């Protein structure tokens, strides 16, 4: 179509601005929600201040990337329509990640972010580095998703529910330590760690960042990471926050996740900064 690339640019920017205005409206008009939140899709998704806060971050980040792409030569204008479509799908996935209260919805949201990201990483079809980045992204992402899905299946088999509140209630009712529960949560956190590039699941980052178009490198470094943190915080708060108040939580399946996350954060920052010293490419 004539001027399809320019039209797709303005349509995308308009969509993001309208979404941003709608999100601000939801934030400042909490009276329309019961107790400040609203459930959708049989309780699998919640719209609350927490999710809306992160949605504002997603929208501002994506809007900045779209504007950055306008004068960037790495993404050809004739490919803008597909490019912007993939970015909007990824944005929807990040919305769902910040609002999910169900393991199945969590998995679908992560895949809705991951699959378009694989294509965006290799968007420069004729560039060998871009194709390599996409392939590595797919391999690492598929492996992490498989482990995460395996952990989810174990959690469902033990708790008998996919809802985070029910999983938290099951953990509260446990009277003895369950090794399988610990393993299932570790497998689940592999997927979360991959999404936020936490050590030791960060090895895909340098190659993918180097081979991807520069706007996509900026996008991968911000928005999906924030979405991963939003999902991780909600998951831990919903399923494990009450364990500290349980009289038998220490004997059951309680693990000091605060300490574990603090250690992983320190290791991630240390490894990232030390290895960055010997790099010659800013994107790596």
Automatic annotation (TrEMBL):
Q: Does the keyword Endoplasmic reticulum apply?
A: no
Give the record's membrane topology: Multi-pass membrane protein
Coarse class of the protein's main subcellular location: membrane
Q: Where are the transmembrane segments?
A: 9-28, 40-68, 80-98, 104-125, 137-157, 177-196, 217-237, 257-277
**Record keywords:** Membrane, Transmembrane, Transmembrane helix
Reply yes or no: does the keyword Transmembrane helix apply.
yes
Q: Mind telling me which Pfam families this protein's record contains?
A: Proton_antipo_M
Where's the NADH:quinone oxidoreductase/Mrp antiporter transmembrane domain? 100-284
Entry protein name: NADH:quinone oxidoreductase/Mrp antiporter transmembrane domain-containing protein
Source organism of this protein record: marine metagenome
Lineage of the organism: unclassified sequences, metagenomes, ecological metagenomes
């Amino acid at each position: 179509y004539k001027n399809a690339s320019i039209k797709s640019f303005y349509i995308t920017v308009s969509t993001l601005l309208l979404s941003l205005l709608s999100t601000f409206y939801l934030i400042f008009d909490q009276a329309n929600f019961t107790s400040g939140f609203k459930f959708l899709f049989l309780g699998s998704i919640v719209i609350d201040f927490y999710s809306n806060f992160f949605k504002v971050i997603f929208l501002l980040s994506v809007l900045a990337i779209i504007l950055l792409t306008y004068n960037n030569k790495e993404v050809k204008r004739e490919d803008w329509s597909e490019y912007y479509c993939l970015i909007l799908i990824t944005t929807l996935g990040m919305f769902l990640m910040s609002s999910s209260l169900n393991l199945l919805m969590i998995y679908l949201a992560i895949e809705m972010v991951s699959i378009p990201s694989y294509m965006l990483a290799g968007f420069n079809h004729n560039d060998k580095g871009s194709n390599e980045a996409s392939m590595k992204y797919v391999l690492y992402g598929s492996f992490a998703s498989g482990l995460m899905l395996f952990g989810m299946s174990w959690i469902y088999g033990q708790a008998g529910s996919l809802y985070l509140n029910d999983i938290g209630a099951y953990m509260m009712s446990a009277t003895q330590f369950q090794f399988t529960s610990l393993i299932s949560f570790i497998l689940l956190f592999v997927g979360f760690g991959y999404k936020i590039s936490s050590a030791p699941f960060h090895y895909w980052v340098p190659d993918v960042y180097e081979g991807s178009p520069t706007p996509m490198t900026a996008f991968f470094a911000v928005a999906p990471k924030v979405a991963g943190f939003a999902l991780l915080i909600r998951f831990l708060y919903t399923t494990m926050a009450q364990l500290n108040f349980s009289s038998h939580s220490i004997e059951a399946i309680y693990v000091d996740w605060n300490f574990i996350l603090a250690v992983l954060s320190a290791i991630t920052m240390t490894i990232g900064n030390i290895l960055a010293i010997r790099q010659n490419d800013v994107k790596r």
